[in-house]
Specification:
Blueprint: H1 5-14, H2 27-41, H3 47-59, H4 62-74, H5 76-84, H6 86-92, E1 102-107, E2 112-117, H7 126-129, H8 134-137, H9 139-147, H10 149-155, E3 165-170, E4 175-180, H11 192-196, H12 201-205
Parallel strand pairs: 1-4, 2-3
Helix pairs in contact: 4-5, 5-6, 9-10
The structure holds fe (iii) ion (FE).
Length: 214
């Protein structure tokens, strides 16, 4: 196999999001396509199975989390259920969180902000937030989120007063977190649907507060 260092590097840099003609693919990407072709050829999977799984993965997005957060902001009973029994409450909203073993919802307050990281790799609540952003998987974030969470938040545009406590939560294969951010001020007249547009992915990881109303 013609694997050299530049190939490996290229595969790592290219990421999974960019469609390239096959001849430009790096070693690992080529290997994945070869395995896919073999699985189809041997009748283990069909092209339809694979496409269905891709569609399912792509359908999971931060919109799911934003829906949960906005509902929690307008409905205190829902919020309580979401914190007490997150997976069942997701099911109520048509969100399938069954693949998460232990799912924990962390409620931000005026005094405490929660920040989520996976120091080991890239564990992330995919059913709720879709695929993790590249920075979440970076060594830089994974180390600095623990050593200097306030500094990380500052770089995302969030300056926290000294009297606000920051709690960092390390995700694992068994444990996934969703930050329930504070409802922004000045949103009293907004509908649940409008509120959901303020709930960003990053605010549910905890690096920033949600958007302010326009
Ligand atoms: Fe991980």
């Amino acid at each position: 196999m013609g694997m050299d260092r530049s190939d490996v590097h290229h595969a790592a840099d290219t990421g999974e999001d960019h469609p390239h003609p096959k001849h430009e693919l790096g070693y690992y990407a080529k290997r994945i396509y070869a395995i896919r072709d073999l699985l189809i050829e041997k009748g283990v999977l069909t092209q339809d199975d694979i496409q269905r799984q891709i569609d399912y993965q792509e359908a999971r997005s931060p919109a799911n989390g934003a829906q949960l957060v906005a509902r929690a902001w307008v409905d205190p009973a829902f919020k309580k259920r979401l914190i007490d029994d997150p997976k069942a409450t997701c099911a109520e909203m048509g969100i399938d969180a069954t693949s998460i073993n232990e799912f924990v919802v962390l409620e931000n307050t005026e005094r405490v902000r929660h920040l989520v990281v996976c120091t080991l790799c890239s564990c992330y609540p995919r059913p709720i937030l879709g695929r993790p952003p590249d920075w979440y998987k970076s060594l830089n974030y994974r180390s600095r989120a623990v050593n200097d969470p306030r500094g990380v938040m500052r770089e995302f545009g969030q300056e926290l007063p000294d009297d606000v406590e920051v709690r960092v939560h390390d995700s694992t294969a068994d444990m996934r977190y969703l930050v329930l951010p504070l409802r922004p001020r000045g949103t009293e007249g907004m509908s649940e649907k409008e509120l959901a547009t303020l709930v960003t992915r990053d605010s549910m990881i905890g690096v920033v507060d949600p958007l302010a109303p326009q």
